[in-house]
Design brief:
The chain is elongated and about 85 Å long. It is 42% helix and 15% strand. The protein has helices spanning 56-65, 67-70, 90-97, 113-122, 128-141, 163-178, 183-194, 228-231, 235-254, 256-272; strands at residues 3-9, 28-33, 44-47, 76-80, 85-86, 102-106, 151-158, 199-201, 211-212. By secondary structure, it is α/β, with parallel strands linked by helices. It is built from 10 helices and 9 strands.
């Protein structure tokens, strides 16, 4: 079966990791990137324009989630996040671990989907409005999925042209467009809708005999991410909010001597008693 290994690096979020195992493999290693200057010793760089220029995160997901659209001549794909480095040739990994049509990892740190929702909200990883909307949608229409397994999205082997896998990919992409960009939140719903059951490996997400993660080089944590709340807010409203905040700060600064005086006075009065 024709197989391709690929990753997607959009928006300059981090530098490209090389894959030493590519030299021991006969498979094609493809890196989709919007950086026209990017070069690599182990990846074949395929230049692409972001599918959604104003939303680089979902532009990366467009490449990650839909291999059947991007690799018509290949029946199988091994997707890895850029922060994953393979420690064995991909042919060996697939032969040892793939039981089609879909092989991935169980999440090492969250056992139920609701826990992943909580972490996304707790760390402010995505717009809370979209996350809450997705959570409410699941609670109303598919409450059983909130206790479903969580899967790590950094490694996936997919027989991506099988009809069930095409259905999964399209449903997954639709969910990521409609709700949170965090694809882990949408995968259980897409699997349920398509009827796909994953061959989920019960291995550490961080390290196994065939992979290491995360291997990050010069990650830009401050890279701009699209936010519906921020990007759709009218400029006039943003200016008004900043002006109000400036006025509050000015008043607080003007009142600082009075505040200090009254606090000292209260302390002295307490001591006098």
């Amino acid at each position: 079966m024709q197989t391709v290994v690929y990753t997607a690096l959009i928006g300059g979020y981090e530098q490209l990791n090389e894959q030493p195992m590519a030299k021991q493999s006969s498979l094609r290693f493809v890196c989709f990137s919007d950086d026209a200057t990017l070069q690599s010793d182990s990846w074949e760089i395929v230049h692409v324009e972001p599918y959604l220029p104003e939303d680089l995160s979902r532009s990366q997901r467009y490449l990650k989630l839909l291999p059947h659209r991007h690799f018509s001549d290949y029946q199988r794909s091994l997707y890895i996040d850029n922060t994953v480095v393979l420690k064995k040739p991909p042919e060996e990994i697939i032969a040892d671990h793939h039981q089609g049509p879909f092989t991935n990892f169980e999440h090492s740190y969250r056992s139920e989907l609701i826990e992943e929702f909580i972490k996304v909200l707790q760390y402010g990883i995505d717009d809370p409005g979209r996350v809450y909307e997705q959570l409410n949608q699941l609670q109303t229409f598919s409450p059983q999925l909130l206790s479903a397994k969580v899967f790590w999205g950094g490694f996936m082997i997919r027989d991506h042209h099988q009809p069930q896998m095409v259905a999964l990919a399209e449903q997954w992409w639709a969910q990521v467009l409609r709700y949170s960009r965090r694809d882990q939140l949408s995968l259980p719903r897409a699997m349920d809708a398509s009827g796909v059951v994953a061959n989920a490996l019960k291995l550490s997400n961080k390290d196994s005999d065939f992979h290491q993660w995360p291997v990050a080089i010069a990650r830009k944590r401050s890279a701009e991410q699209f936010s519906a709340h921020r990007n759709l807010k009218p400029q006039s409203l943003q200016i008004a909010e900043l002006s109000a905040e400036l006025e509050r700060s000015r008043k607080a600064l003007n009142n600082l001597p009075k505040t200090v005086f009254y606090r000292l006075r209260d302390k002295l009065l307490l001591r006098g008693k």
